[in-house]
Design goal:
Blueprint (H helix, E strand, L loop, with lengths): L22 E4 L2 E4 L27 E4 L2 E10 L6 E5 L8 E5 L3 E5 L4 E4 L3 H5 L11 H16 L9
Parallel strand pairs: 3-8
Antiparallel strand pairs: 1-2, 3-4, 4-5, 5-6, 7-8
Length: about 160
């Protein structure tokens, strides 16, 4: 398989069926939880996520492999959107910051936010510091989540 150019989008749907909203079109194939069409922007919600200015505080958060906690606070600031998730006993009461770009979709009826990262990926992210508002922290966190898209699953033979 050829290496994909993250600066191009290809949303061609080769069937008449509407793809599942959790699926992303990439190079004429659909990959669950894959990189959103185009370059990954960690600090902006995807258009198809269904956030559209909603207050997400109190919503439960689901990683790709299970629940991770509830949203304690959120920001919808342009190019600086994120969620702060209280993980409760999952990571011993710590909070984690998730850039908006990790949000796959929102189910407002169930009050759940679905992110396209595993629990282990979230747990391994740079530690959340409520006092860290400097650009260096945001760059570090955004870079970490951007790199998780670049990682190739073991045994896939892709690089």
């Amino acid at each position: 398989m050829d290496r994909l150019d993250p600066n191009t989008t290809n949303t061609t749907n080769t069937t008449n069926a509407t793809p599942d909203p959790e699926l992303r079109a990439v190079d004429q194939s659909v990959v669950a939880g894959g990189t959103p069409a185009g370059a990954f922007d960690p600090w902006s919600y995807r258009n198809e996520a269904g956030v559209a200015g909603a207050n997400l505080v109190g919503y439960k958060v689901e990683a790709s492999d299970g629940s991770i906690g509830k949203i304690d606070s959120d920001s919808s600031e342009v190019n600086a959107s994120y969620l702060v998730v209280d993980t409760g006993p999952w990571i011993f009461g710590k909070k984690v910051m998730l850039p908006a770009g990790t949000v796959n979709h929102v189910d407002h009826e169930e009050q759940k936010v679905f992110v396209d990262r595993t629990k282990d990926q979230i747990k391994a992210a740079p530690e959340y510091d409520e006092t860290a508002t400097d650009p260096a922290y945001r760059d570090k966190l955004g870079g970490y989540y951007n790199d998780t898209y670049a990682a190739t699953p073991p045994g896939s033979g892709l690089r």
